[in-house]
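Tip: read the tokens left to right.
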């Protein structure tokens, strides 16, 4: 793939490309020229990467690294829903000018739920920046030597341009566009692995719901500060169901591997697939509960379709 991320097929100013690499040498071989090209054009550059990739890039770039902003993707992207706000803040900081970024939200060892959210995140990037008036080039590296083939296939559906370190880029052959992003958002989540507790709730049951969440947290011995965050997030989601989801919903909780999972579902439908990934305006009537959950919880999954809405929050044990 060439160092510059080519333009999107639809003429948008957001240029979203993926590149496959094997090993740190190939990684720096394709990412460092992309960064240097931006620096030569006086474009601000933000790199959100894993620590070992950042170290490799700093060594490769030498003095040029001081002109690049770096973020630890292991921290920022632990919950992939937090990544779009970071990119949006970067673009808005340099509004009207050309900017470029490098982001690698997918790495070996992530759980299936995390990979699902990374796939949704990558597809929703195309929706989030569809109306961009600034020139934003974002390159997403994928470690082809460590990631399963299904993940690499997903990358081809979520990026308008895909290439490999030593191959020419391909344009849109398998790119799914907005339809793919909306399909992912509307697709139901897999069923729970075994419910520890469930309760139907309405407006009068929110205190009881908080008690149920406390009890589940005690069963898996979560620290007190984590319990309070989880109780607050779940309460906000249930309040959303009461106000926007038909007056109530269903709370379910279960253990899934090394995580406690809580799910709030209701028959309401969310039209905006970016809910919780953009900070609600101060007077906004919706989205605040999901935004808060994304700030408080280790991982959040939101899906909404004809059968209703489900929001799952994961807390690692």
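Filled-in amino acids:
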């Amino acid at each position: 793939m060439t160092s510059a991320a080519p333009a999107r097929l639809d003429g948008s100013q957001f240029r979203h490309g993926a590149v496959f690499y094997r090993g740190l040498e190939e990684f720096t071989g394709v990412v460092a020229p992309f960064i240097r090209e931006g620096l030569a054009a006086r474009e601000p550059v933000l790199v959100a990467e894993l620590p070992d990739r950042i170290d490799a890039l700093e060594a490769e770039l030498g003095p040029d690294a001081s002109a690049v902003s770096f973020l630890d993707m292991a921290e920022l992207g632990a919950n992939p829903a937090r990544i779009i706000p970071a990119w949006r803040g970067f673009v808005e900081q340099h509004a009207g000018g050309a900017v470029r970024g490098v982001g690698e939200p997918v790495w070996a060892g992530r759980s299936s739920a995390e990979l699902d959210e990374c796939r949704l995140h990558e597809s929703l990037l195309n929706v989030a920046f569809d109306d961009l008036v600034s020139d934003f080039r974002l390159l997403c590296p994928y470690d082809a030597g460590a990631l399963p083939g299904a993940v690499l296939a997903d990358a081809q559906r979520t990026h308008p341009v895909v290439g490999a370190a030593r191959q020419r880029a391909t344009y849109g052959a398998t790119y799914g566009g907005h339809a793919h992003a909306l399909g992912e958002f509307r697709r139901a989540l897999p069923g729970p692995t075994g419910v520890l507790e469930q309760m139907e709730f309405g407006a009068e049951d929110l205190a009881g719901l908080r008690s149920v969440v406390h009890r589940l947290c005690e069963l898996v011995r979560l620290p007190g500060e984590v319990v309070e965050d989880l109780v607050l997030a779940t309460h906000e989601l249930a309040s959303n169901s009461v106000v926007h989801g038909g007056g109530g919903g269903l709370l379910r909780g279960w253990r899934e591997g090394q995580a406690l999972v809580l799910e709030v579902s209701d028959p309401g439908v969310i039209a905006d697939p970016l809910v919780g990934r953009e900070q609600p305006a101060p007077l906004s009537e919706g989205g605040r509960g999901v935004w808060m959950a994304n700030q408080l919880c280790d991982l959040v999954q939101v899906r909404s379709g004809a059968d209703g809405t489900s929001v799952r929050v994961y807390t690692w044990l």
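The two ends are 40 Å apart (CA to CA). Residues 1-11 have pLDDT under 50 and may be disordered.
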